[in-house]
Amino acid sequence: MTADTITTADTRIDARWLIPVEPFGVVLEHQAIILQGSRILAIVPQTEADHHYRTRETLTLDQHVVLPGLINLHGHTAMSLFRGLADDLPLMTWLNDHIWPAEGKFVSEQFVTDGTRLAMAEMLRTGTTTFSDMYFFPEISAQAAHDTGMRAQICFPLMDMPTVWGSGPEEYLNKGAELIRQWQQDDYVMPAIGPHAPYTVSDGPLRSAVALAEDTGAAVQIHLHETAFEVADALKNTGKRPLARMAELGVLSSNTQCVHMTQVDESDLLLLKQTGAHVVHCPESNLKLASGFCPVQKILDHDINVTIGTDGAASNNDLDLFGELKTAAMVAKAVANDAAALSAHRALEMATLRGAKALGRDQEIGSLVAGKLADLIAVDLSDPYLQPVYDPASHLVYSNHGRAVSHSWIHGVPQLQDGILTRIDVPDLVLRVNEWRKQILS
Ligand SMILES: [Zn+2]
């Protein structure tokens, strides 16, 4: 081997197992992932890496499976500060009597700063490297994600009623357009448009949201068909299913993410397929609020993209996407009455490459391929509850929880090392969170 065949790079990660997600369903062994700057330079067998790469640091993960960082496509991050505040209630009672009043009283810029940091700490600790947020003061959560170095789609809220963030649709749209302008070129932040739901946003603001999306290329994320009541009520009031109304208003496109979709009939499948809109499945929120069941396998069978999200911590009550994957796989099998529904590999794809596709970023993130951005995680499989290892993909979905995630990198930057967060001061965060607890209780 001559010196000129040796490439120098930043980091070499030796992985016992590797699930690149692309190609689908593959588990590789004894691979070296070579990182250079923000990107993956190469993925080669370790013996080949010995001959061709010299790196500043080498990390040996000989009990670990390495995979793309997870993408949590729906949440309300600052609501982590309301975790466990109101449980065991149906959606409208939970919103009207508990969440909306608490939000009216406590949500502020500081609340969003601290709540977003709490959510990011939990997500980073459990393997998420990209998340989507829909909450008040999106400029604050955008800054928090950027400062921490976490990738985030930040959807500014849009609804008819006034809130702490604005007086109504016109102000939300003006502030939202400014958010898009400010963050659109950022490495980490993807600004987007977040009309809350068909029953909280009227046609005019929805049309303006579509115009803004077309002007800027920003994505649209909306809660849709969360409950049977929502669909029945809309049919009574407008004569249309909410999804049909969204289609008529131009809301549905390949740049649109429909969150929940527990009510899906043949006409809905046709609209989703025709428009290329994406579905964001949030099984634990749907279970906890008794909202219904999204027929994931049926939607996938129609060649419609399905991704996954935790929803906010107040209706879940955690942001551990590995836990969400297990629930998703279990529920999909029960709903389809078919044990083959939503396989482990398909579930992992939902939390990675399919999420990236919904964000329009599947050329950059969502799988481990040379040239893509270095967003990856390692899961330590040495613990007795993950032994023995026949198939790491099976363990990741059916036996794992997020606490087994040991390492993560975003944009090539280490975020988690041996289970320790590198960019968030956890003791300081816990102090602040407990101050909020005292305030909210009093
Ligand atoms: Zn939600």
Describe this structure in words.
This protein is α/β, with parallel strands linked by helices and 442 residues long. Helices cover 39% and strands 24% of the residues. The chain has helices at residues 46-52, 91-106, 109-125, 138-148, 169-183, 203-216, 228-238, 242-249, 266-275, 283-288, 296-301, 321-336, 344-350, 353-358, 392-399, 426-441; strands at residues 7-18, 28-36, 39-45, 53-68, 70-72, 128-134, 151-158, 189-195, 220-224, 256-260, 278-281, 306-308, 376-380, 405-410, 413-417, 420-421. An eight-stranded mixed β-sheet has the order 3-2-1-4-13-14-15-16, with helices on one face. It has a four-stranded parallel β-sheet with strand order 5-6-7-8. The chain has a four-stranded parallel β-sheet with strand order 9-10-11-12. Helix 3 (109-125) crosses helix 16 (426-441). It is globular and about 70 Å long. The structure holds zinc ion. The site of zinc ion has 6 residues, from loops. Its cofactor is Zn(2+). It is an enzyme of class 3 (hydrolase).
Summarize the model shown.
By secondary structure, the protein is an alpha/beta fold.
- Broad shape: globular
User: Which hetero compounds are present in the coordinates?
Assistant: zinc ion
The major beta sheet can be summarized as: 8 strands, mixed
- Roughly how much helix do the residues carry, as a percent range? 25-40%
Class from helix and strand fractions: alpha/beta
Beta-strand segment tally: 16
Radius of gyration: 21 Å
User: How far is the N terminus from the C terminus?
Assistant: 70 Å
Mean pLDDT level: 96
